[in-house]
Amino acid sequence: MTTPPSQQRSDQVADTSIGDLIGNISDDLSQLFRQEVELAKVELKQEAAKAGKAAGMLGGAGFAGYLVVVLLSFALVAGLSNVMDPGWAALIVAALWAIIAGVLYLRGRRQLKTVEPMPRRTVDTIKEDAQWLKNPTG
């Protein structure tokens, strides 16, 4: 007569040593840690991409601001040395560059505010894992 499968499983559990159980827990924890590190890497890469885009916009605003200064300087020189027609034209171009600089700056600043320096999903899953370790049955 053969023993039922439920009895075989309980015999296997009873035959498992404490060392094997601790080894299994250790393996599970190290695998969990590796997964958490991988998740953190992915999150940080996404946030770095957002920060890079925002930095690019702020760099564009800086360049546009530089052009404003250059064109305003040329406009002032042209306005003083001519009868105002070429100078007014340069002022209009400088004003357009000032608008572009303002828009790029505001968009870049808004984008930079959305960058999350802490990997929230990783922190949340680590908290869940810690909670599970405290109470694995419930």
From TrEMBL:
List, alphabetically, the InterPro entries matched: Phage_holin_3_6
Question: What keywords are annotated for this sequence in UniProt?
Answer: Membrane, Transmembrane, Transmembrane helix
Pfam family of the protein (one): Phage_holin_3_6
TM spans (from-to): 54-81, 87-106
What is the protein named? Answer: Phage holin family protein
Where does this protein come from, organism-wise?
Answer: Paractinoplanes toevensis
